[in-house]
């Protein structure tokens, strides 16, 4: 699959060209990725199933604690491993590198993303503790309005800081995955200069992806809701009233949903890469133009 990444594109063209590239090379992309996406979807569907309330599974786990621990550990480990594998396969489609070359970079970007998320979670928890420790006047204790407004502004401020600082990482991480540098934060200043463009592109990409996910998730949402309400009723002593094939149907539906989610994420990943290539092209043209102007001024 030949992809021309380094080409000037508008935000709209990035989205359109990503869809065109996948649709025109669908057989090639599917042949390279379907099996690993399928394995990842199966593992993730079982992980989701384990997190749903299930009285029979809970009782079995209490009676067979070692077996339950082993099964859950294997499923969770498989979900993580196949998740990294899927990302490597998708990046292989985009940058043409083998998964062994993509794997270290995928691990670095995912660990950094998790670390940044944990950092903001810690900041949010500290903010909550600070809010609870601030004494309020008797009038404020009765109404609670001042505390609520302060808390609201603090949360909004933290959210703005998170968005402003994390948006450029969408560029630097892709630059890192494309093999331009061995440090994932190189180019942060350049990305900050294109912050508005990256923000608009990410907003549109995830808005469209969210709409697509909402459409394909309806069957899974219905079955998961049925599972939740039936198990809640069972806790109250009511019969389950679900057919015997419900569990296989639920797992199969979740697997199909996550399979489709994988290729929607591939489109989002490719559209983001096209945006990165457009910024790189603009920067290269600007550098070339400045160099020519300097040479003209010298002579």
From TrEMBL:
Parts of the chain that traverse the membrane: 33-53, 73-94, 106-128, 148-174, 194-225, 245-266
Source superkingdom: Bacteria
Record keywords: Membrane, Transmembrane, Transmembrane helix
The keyword Transmembrane is assigned to this record: yes
Protein name: Uncharacterized protein
């Amino acid at each position: 699959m030949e992809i021309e990444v380094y080409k000037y594109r508008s935000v709209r063209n990035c989205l359109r060209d990503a869809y065109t590239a996948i649709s025109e090379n669908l057989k090639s992309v599917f042949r390279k990725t379907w099996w690993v996406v399928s394995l990842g979807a199966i593992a993730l569907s079982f992980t989701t199933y384990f997190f749903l309330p299930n009285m029979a599974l809970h009782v079995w786990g209490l009676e067979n604690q070692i077996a339950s621990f082993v099964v859950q550990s294997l499923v969770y480990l498989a979900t993580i491993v196949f998740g990294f594998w899927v990302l490597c396969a998708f990046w292989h489609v985009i940058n043409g590198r083998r998964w062994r070359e993509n794997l270290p970079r995928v691990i670095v970007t995912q660990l950094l993303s998790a670390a940044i998320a944990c950092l903001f979670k810690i900041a949010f928890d500290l903010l909550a503790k600070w809010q609870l420790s601030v004494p309020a006047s008797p009038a404020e204790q009765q109404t609670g309005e001042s505390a609520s407004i302060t808390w609201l502004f603090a949360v909004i401020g933290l959210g703005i800081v998170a968005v402003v600082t994390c948006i450029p990482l969408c560029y630097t991480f892709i630059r890192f995955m494309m093999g331009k540098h061995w440090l994932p934060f190189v180019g942060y200043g350049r990305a900050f200069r294109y912050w508005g463009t990256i923000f608009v592109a990410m907003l549109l990409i995830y808005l469209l992806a969210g709409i697509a996910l909402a459409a394909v998730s309806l069957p899974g949402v219905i079955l998961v809701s049925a599972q939740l309400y039936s198990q809640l009723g069972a806790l109250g002593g009511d019969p389950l009233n679900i057919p015997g094939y419900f569990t296989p149907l639920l797992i199969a539906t979740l697997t199909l949903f996550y399979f489709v989610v994988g290729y929607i994420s591939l489109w989002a990943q490719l559209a983001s890469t096209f945006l990165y290539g457009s910024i790189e092209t603009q920067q290269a043209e600007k550098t070339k133009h400045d160099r020519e102007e300097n040479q003209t001024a010298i002579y």
